[in-house]
Design goal:
Belongs to the succinate/malate CoA ligase beta subunit family. It catalyses: (S)-malate + ATP + CoA = (S)-malyl-CoA + ADP + phosphate; GTP + succinate + CoA = succinyl-CoA + GDP + phosphate; succinate + ATP + CoA = succinyl-CoA + ADP + phosphate. GO terms for molecular function: ATP binding; magnesium ion binding; malate-CoA ligase activity; succinate-CoA ligase (ADP-forming) activity; succinate-CoA ligase (GDP-forming) activity. Helix 8 (about 250-255) packs antiparallel against helix 10 and helix 11 (about 335-350) packs parallel to helix 12 (about 365-370). Strand 8 (about 115-125) and strand 9 form a beta hairpin. Helices cover about 35% and strands about 25% of the residues. It has three domains: about 20-110, 2-Layer Sandwich (Dna Ligase, domain 1); about 115-240, 2-Layer Sandwich (D-amino Acid Aminotransferase, Chain A, domain 1), CATH 3.30.470.20; about 250-399, 3-Layer(aba) Sandwich (Rossmann fold), CATH 3.40.50. With about 400 residues, it is an alpha+beta fold.
Amino acid sequence: MNIHEYQGKELLAKYGVGIPAGIAALTVEEAVAAAKQLPGPLYVVKAQIHAGGRGKGKFKELPADAKGGVRLAKSIEEVEAFAKEMLGNTLVTIQTGEAGKQVNRLYVTDGVDIDKEYYLSMLVDRKTGRVAMIVSTEGGMDIEEVAHNTPEKIATITIDPAEGFQAHHGRAVAFALKLSGDLNKQAQKLAKQLYTAFIAMDCDMVEINPLVQSKGGELLVLDTKMSFDSNALARHPDIFALRDETEEDPAEIEASKYDLAYIKLDGDIGCMVNGAGLAMATMDIIKLNGMFPANFLDVGGGANKEKVTAAFKIILADPAVKGILVNIFGGIMKCDIIAEGIVAAAKEVNLSVPLVVRLEGTNVQQGKDILANSGLAIVPANDLGDAAKKIVAEVQAVA
C-alpha cells in the first residue's frame, strides 16, 4: 500500500526525523490558509499523487511551458495561483504514464534554503534477505540518470534484521554521503531513525529524495515516498486508514475485496490463473505466441465459485480484453469447483469474447465434463502451450 508524501512525513516525524513544516490542503482556500500558518516568505506547493517525477511533470490542461507539480511560491498570492492551476487537473509524470493522475490534494510546506541535496532510500532486498539502505551524494530530480550513467555514485548498505541496526551501519551511511562533523553525526542518527521506522511500520520501501543539507546546517527530509507490506496492515490500522482509494485502479480495489491478486496490464488477453508462478508463465507464453496479457490475476489456492465469478467480472470490465485464458492447476483447488465458477460467471456476465480453459489436477475430468456440458462456447486446451496458441488464434479470428 502506498501513501502520500505528507502522510509519510507525518509518520517519520514521530520517529524524530527532521521534516520542514507543512500542511495538506484539499481546496484553494485551505492551501492559502496553510501558507498563512507557515513562517514564509518562501513556500513550496506540491501536488500529492502516488507517483514520482512530479517536479518535471506536466499538466494536461495547462500550456506546455507551465511549471510542474512542485512549485516555489514567493508570496501568498502565488500559493493561491498555483493551487488554482493544480487542483483538479491531470499531472503526467514519468511514473504515471500518458494517462496521468488527477491532483485532488496539495501539500504546502515552508521553503528551505538548500546547500546540498542527497538521496537515501530503504527497501527489502529479496536476494540477500536483508534491509538495504541505498545512499548517494547526487540527490534530486535527476537520480534516475545518476543510477544509469554513474552507478558508482550510489552505495548500498545491507542490514541483517536478525542483527538489527548497528553503529557501523550509521557510520557507513555518513561516509557514503561524504559528511563530516555535526552533519556526520546527524546522518548516523537519521539512518537509525529511518531503520527503526521501517521495521516498526512493516514498510516495503522508504525513499527520501532529496534529503537536504540546509544552509543552517540541518539534514532535512524534503520529499518522501513510502509503501507498506499489505500482508502486515492488519497490525497497523492507523496506517491502513491512510489509504487513498482515488489513487488506485478501481479494478484492483474490487479485486482486493475478494482477496484476488490483480494488476492491470496493457495487453488484450485476460488471464485467470491460480498461483503467482503459473500466472507469470502464462503471461510469458501468451507473449511468446504474439499477443500481450491484459492483466495478472492470481485467484489463489482456495478460490471458490464466488471468487471465480468476481475474477471474471473484473477481467471483462477492462474494455481492452479481447479474449480470456483460464489456466488452472488443481491441487488444493479442485478443477470441478473452478469449472462451476467459470460456467456461472460466463452466464452471469453474458460472455462475448473467446474463452479458452486449461484444467489439470484434482477432479480434472469432472471439471472438463462440466465445461463440455455447459452449452457455452468454451474452448478446451490440453496444456499451457496448446491453450496459448488457441486463445491467440480465437482472438485473431474474431478480429
